[in-house]
Amino acid sequence: MILDPIIQRGAKCAGSVCLGVCLANLAVVAAARAEQGSSDGFWPTPRMVELLVERVVDDAAITHRLDDRQRGIYRENLAKALPAFFEKHQADLEPVITEIIVQHISGEVPDPPRMARWGGKLLPAWRDFTAKYEEAYQAMRPHL
Known about the structure:
84% helix, single chain, mainly alpha, disordered N terminus, elongated
């Protein structure tokens, strides 16, 4: 029982360190984007998109038991589609993502009107995403 408070403090400390590292990384990204003349919101870097593609492919490979050839086809298709999707919807997604991150970091709970506003702004991207998902599924069907 005596270790419980120590473990709790360690977990809080680790969480604080992780949050600090994340905030430092966000500051670096924001500074780099400011130099480039882009917005001050949070947006995934090309490396983050690469990692997201790898994660999605790895998860799908486990869930759907994809072989190496299928994984390669899926990775190739997703690596083209995901950046195009983000670029197409950046104007709608970036401000909402930034607002959600700020809200989360501040510890505030979003009120229903704010969440409804977010939902309204995200709905067009969500509809496009579901259509793209169906296209990707149809493209993979012959390879499954």
